[in-house]
C-alpha cells in the first residue's frame, strides 16, 4: 500500500543544485531550501569574507601594515635618510611630487610617517622621530 500523494509532497529539491532532499535534512539559507552541501558552501563564503575584512582593518592599526611597493620605498628612504624634503624624495624614488604626496598621505594616515616644517620648508620623517 503506497500512498502516492503523500510521497510526492515530501519530495523537495535543493534550490541551488537541484539534488533531491531528505525532508529531515534540509537547510534554510536566505529564504531558500538547500541541501547540506550547498548550505555549507554558502556559509563558507560568508566566513571567508569576514577574516579578510578584519585583516584589512588591522593593516591600519598596529601590527604589520600593508604597504604598496612605493610606500615601502618611501619608508625605506625615511629610515635611511630622513628627514627629507619632497623634492629629495621624488628625485631618489623617481616619482612625481603629487605621487609622493598621495602615498605620503596614506603613510601619515597609518601613523608611520609625518611631515613637519623646518626653516619654512616641509620635511618628511618617520612618525616616531
Ligand atoms: Zn544543493
Describe this structure in words.
The chain has a two-stranded antiparallel sheet with strand order 1-2. Strands 3-4 form a two-stranded antiparallel sheet. The chain is rod-shaped. It has 2 domains: about 5-60, no CATH class; about 70-125, Arc Repressor Mutant, subunit A. The chain contains 5 helices and 6 strands. Mean pLDDT is about 80; it is low at about 55-60. It is about 50% helix and about 15% strand. Helix 3 packs across helix 5 (about 95-110). It is α+β, with helices and mostly antiparallel strands. Bound molecules: zinc ion (ZN). Zinc ion binds near residues 34, 35 and 37.
Short synopsis of the structure:
With 129 residues, the chain is α+β, with helices and mostly antiparallel strands. The protein has two domains: 4-58, no CATH class; 69-126, Arc Repressor Mutant, subunit A (Orthogonal Bundle), CATH 1.10.10. The protein has five helices and six strands; from the N terminus they run αββββααααββ.
Which descriptors would you attach to this protein?
Arc Repressor Mutant, subunit A; alpha+beta; single chain; 129 residues; 50% helix; two-stranded antiparallel sheet; 2 domains; two-stranded antiparallel ribbon; 17% strand; binds zinc ion; 6 strands
CATH class bucket of the largest domain: Mainly Alpha
- Distinct ligands: zinc ion
Percent of residues in β-strands: 15-25%
Q: Can you give the mean pLDDT?
A: 82
Structure class = alpha+beta
Largest sheet data: 2 strands, antiparallel
What would CATH call the architecture of the largest domain?
Orthogonal Bundle
- First-residue to last-residue Cα separation: 87 Å
CATH topology of the largest domain: Arc Repressor Mutant, subunit A
* Tally of structural domains: 2
* Percentage of residues assigned to helices: 40-55%
Low-confidence stretches: 57-61
Amino acid at each position: 500500500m503506497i500512498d502516492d500523494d503523500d510521497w510526492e509532497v515530501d519530495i523537495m529539491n535543493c534550490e541551488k543544485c537541484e539534488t533531491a532532499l531528505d525532508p529531515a535534512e534540509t537547510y534554510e539559507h536566505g529564504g531558500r531550501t538547500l541541501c547540506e552541501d550547498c548550505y555549507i558552501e554558502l556559509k563558507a563564503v560568508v566566513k571567508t569574507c569576514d577574516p579578510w575584512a578584519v585583516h584589512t582593518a588591522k593593516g591600519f592599526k598596529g601590527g604589520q601594515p600593508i604597504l604598496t611597493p612605493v610606500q615601502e620605498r618611501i619608508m625605506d628612504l625615511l629610515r635611511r635618510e630622513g628627514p627629507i624634503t619632497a623634492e629629495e624624495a621624488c628625485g631618489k624614488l623617481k616619482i612625481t611630487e603629487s605621487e609622493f604626496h598621495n602615498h605620503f598621505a596614506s603613510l601619515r594616515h597609518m601613523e608611520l610617517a609625518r611631515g613637519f616644517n623646518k626653516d619654512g620648508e616641509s620635511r618628511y620623517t618617520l612618525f616616531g622621530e
